[in-house]
Amino acid sequence: MDITRRELISTIAKTGVPAAVAVSVGAPSLHAETENIPVPSAAVGLLYDASICIGCKACVSACAEANDTPADTRSDALHQAPNDLNDLTRNIIKLYKPEDGSISSFVKRQCMQCLDPACAAGCPFQALHKDPETGIVGWTAEQCIGCRYCTITCPYHVPRFQWQGYNPRVTKCELCSTRLEKGLRPGCTTVCPTGAVIFGPRTVLLDEAHQRIRKNPGRYYQERVYGERDNGGTQCLYLSRVPFEKLGLPELGVESVPAKTLRWQRRLYQYFALPALLYVGLVQVIRKSLKGHEHEAHEREKETGLRAQL
Amino acid sequence: MSTATINNPADTSGKTRWERAVPVYGFPVVNRTFIVLVGMTLLAFLLTAYRELAGLGPVSGMNDAYGWGIWKTFNVMVLTALGSGAFAVGIAAWVFRRKRLHALMRMALLTSFLAYACGLLLLGIDAGRPWNFYWIVFPWRWNFHSPLAEVAICMSIYAMIPLAVENIPPVLERLWYFDSRLRPGVERLERGLHKFFPWIIAAAYLLPGMHQSSLGALMLLAGERVHPLWQTPWLPLLYLGAATFMSFGCVAGTTMLCCVVWKRAMDMEVLDEAARITSWLIFGWLGFRLLDILFRGALGTAFHFDRFAGVFWLEMFTVAMGGWMLRRSLRTHETRYMFLGYVLSSLGGMVYRFSPTTLAFRPNPESLYFPSAIEVLVSLGFICMGIAGFLLIVKRFGILPAPLQEWHDMASYFRFRRPYIRWTGYFKYGYFGDNEETESD
Fold first, then answer.
1. How far is the C-alpha of A28 from the C-alpha of B191, rounded, in Å?
2. If you count residue pairs, one on A and one on B, with CB atoms under 8 Å apart, how many are there?
3. Could you report the per-residue pLDDT of B256-306, keeping only the tens digit for each?
4. Domains of chain B, with CATH numbers?
5. Cβ contacts (< 8 Å) between A117 and chain B: which residues?
6. Domain of A100?
7. B328: closest CA among B263, B282, B287?
8. DSSP per position, A75-138
9. Per-residue DSSP letter, A143
């Protein structure tokens, strides 16, 4: 009893038609969801102006102090001089210096607090979670399984995993959320001598950034605020005289990474409707197969005298 | 094989038909290979204990750029693809009613279970904070849109419920033969099991379909850091497709290998059917992959002289070569080409499944990842555990398909050749099928 054409068609119909229905039903509601990423009501962030940063790294040590983290002196056991973000470093100053002697620039790297964070989109048990009010992407130790998916998904390569010890943690800038609760500003913004990094509500920072661009025509790269629309928008904003890509801020387009890449994934699992319908279809088909198979097995049992193996 | 000719004249039609799953009898479980495998497993357990205390850094080559090492990218991504036999062969047998493939089902179910068990254990060891896995039982904590949550949840549910339940019949069968006093109970259990079978089998196809594709979706979020030859919106479907032909190769290839090692007859009808399906799966997959690359305009990068192009052509060549060998074996009926075809296509598929996370993953130009010795030993140790489990189980349970004759041979073997063997169970209160009347109780 090979499958006949009629049966093949009915099999496909039984499993495929519900699938098509579910996709078409689930699609419109999803479309609206990916179009506009809501900005949290009290979204706060940083504005970093690379053109006025002098690279003093005061923010790096202030960050460690504010977060009660020991200084990372692992490079020479003397200076706090990590060469990248790591499990003790949430904030770092780097230098972009092209060899042809054209304009160079410092860059401060820390979590961008994306409006639609890829790390939280991938985090299996919501250990990385975007606060609905302040929009700060925070990490909860009790929910983290240490899978390190965030280190793979983040387009800015920010979250870092602690490789030593039996109880590792994920380190990323959480915008000093505990300090904010006490009415203090994030550590890095309290010490900056030139005001290259300032803290405030996202809307205020955006106004400030646009004002600086207006006042200094031709000074900033593309007269653009990185993070206003990039990657669906971020809460930490950048101004720079050199291309953003040179500072490690990739051009990701206006659509956020999760919206761009997981669109179909989200559509297929919308309300779990499609898998559920597919499941019902499969049960119908298999029930019939099982009946035929059992019947044949028992016929064979009578022939051979050996107990049927199903 | 002499027993066969002595006790029952062999089937003279020249055609072997696999009709019954028969344990591999007459070979001791504990031999040199088995001891080596168990030794490797124990070593892996010891190293795992060290890893839990010392953290991931000291034992592995993983770093900030390559956050995932071979435990995830090989043992989970690659080996569960090889272990999707219960999914791919099962769908062909139960949904598309390729009835001959039922002969391979027990092999498929066992290899799947072992591969998934190995993968899940390593997923737990690889996790930095495994004690937090308990959130898996609280659905309101799940992140429904995360591919990794989908993989972790779906994979554990699949391996622990549908796949485990599907593997129960051989165990019940052994109990049934073990002691006639157990029979009423076993039969009651079997009846209950059969009532739920359609739901369980359907779940056993839906869940792997979901998580094998989600394994591909994992790397979608990595965006351009995965080389354009691999990064595509169709990654989930390609991952699923690779899993289907790789698992066919694993199931049929392993069965062929077992037949050679333990000198069993091969049913060429079943094997041809499997090879035909596999070859079409391979060519369909290859065609889809090439078309996808072509339409995304990434084909140019395949002709750059770099490691990515090398890996790409290696993968394409081995898979295509495997598919071609399978077609050839169907024409000329040479089993060695069939076996080689399975091996090559599965190897190519393994390279494909391994690439997006490791070989074709370029987080930044400075960083490199190469597994440390401990990583490799743990990874190997858990594979050895799977193989040792397989060797033990095929010798104790009816898993490997065989002609009907084999069953009668086994009965004779234990009754006359090695009557002192009691612990095999099957024959203690013997019911060999052909002498049901001789039973006293």
1. 45
2. 214
3. 999 999 999 999 999 999 999 999 999 999 999 999 999 999 999 999 999
4. 37-400 (1.20.1630.10)
5. none
6. 44-255
7. B282
8. TTSSS---SS-BTTBS-EEEEE--TT----EEEEE----BSS-HHHHH-TTSSEEE-TTT--EE
9. G
Q: Distances from the Cα of A278 to the Cαs of A281, A288, B140, B214, in angstroms?
A: 5, 16, 23, 17
Residue in the structure block whose two tokens are 């509601």: A29
B344 Cα to chain A: minimum distance (Å): 29
Q: Do the chains contact at A7 and B150, CB–CB below 8 Å?
A: no
Instruction: State both tokens at B26.
Output: 């007459």
Contacts of B166 in chain A (CB under 8 A): none
Confidence of residue A28 (pLDDT cuts 50, 70, 90): low
Question: Which residues of A fall within a CB distance of 8 Å from B21?
Answer: 309
For residue A67, give the CATH number of its domain.
3.30.70.20
Task: Give pLDDT, residue A55.
Answer: 94
Would the pLDDT of A134 be above 50?
yes
Helix (H) or strand (E) holding A170: strand A170-171
Domain count across chain A: 1
Q: Is residue A271 part of a domain?
A: no
B54 vs B12, more confident:
B54
With CA atoms as reference, the chain B residue closest to A128 would be B143
Query: Residue A171, SS3?
Result: strand
Phi, psi of B160 (to 5 degrees): -85, -30
Instruction: Name the residue in chain B with its Cα closest to that of A289.
Output: B94
Structure ipTM: 0.88
Q: Please identify among residues 274-293 of chain A the ones whose CB lies closer than 8 Å to any CB of chain B.
A: 275, 278-279, 282-283, 285-287, 289-290, 292-293
Does residue A289 lie within any of the structural domains?
Answer: no
| Residue contact A289–B94, C-beta within 8 A | yes
Q: What would the mean pLDDT of B56-83 be, rounded to a whole number?
A: 93
A290: confidence class by pLDDT, cuts 50, 70, 90: very high
**A30 to each of A266, A268, A274, B9, how far by Cα in Å?**
8, 10, 14, 67
Look at residue A282 and tell me if it is in a domain: no
